[in-house]
Amino acid sequence: MTNMIPRPEYPRPNFNRDEWLNLNGQWNFEFDDHNIGLREEWYVKHDYQQEITVPYAFQSKLSGIHTNEFHDVVWYERTFMIPEKWQGKQINLHFGAVDYRAAVWVNGKFVTSHEGGHTSFFTDITDTLIEGLNRVVVRVEDVSTDLEQPRGKQYWEEESEGIFYTRTTGIWQTVWLEPVNHSFIERVKLTPNIDTGEVTVECFIQNRSEKQELEIEIYSQDLVVAKESCKVNLVQRKNKQVVLLKDFERGNGKLWSPEQPFLYTIKLCLNVENEIVDKVESYFGMRKISINDGKIELNNKPYYMKLVLDQGYYPASLLTAPTDEDLKRDIELTKEMGFNGVRKHQKVEEPRYLYWADHLGILVWGEMANSHTFTDKAIKRISSEWQEAIERDYNHPSIVAWVPINESWGVPRLKRDRRQANHLVSMYYLTKSLDQSRLVISNDGWEHTVSDVLTIHDYEGEKQVLKERYSKLDNTLQFTPADRFLFVPGFQYHGEPIMVSEFGGIAYQKSEWQGWGYTSASNDQDFIERYYHVVSSLLESPLVQGFCYTQITDVEQEINGLLTYDRKPKVDLSIIREINEGKKLTFTVKD
Question: Cis omega (within 30 of 0) on the bond before 551?
Answer without folding.
Answer: yes
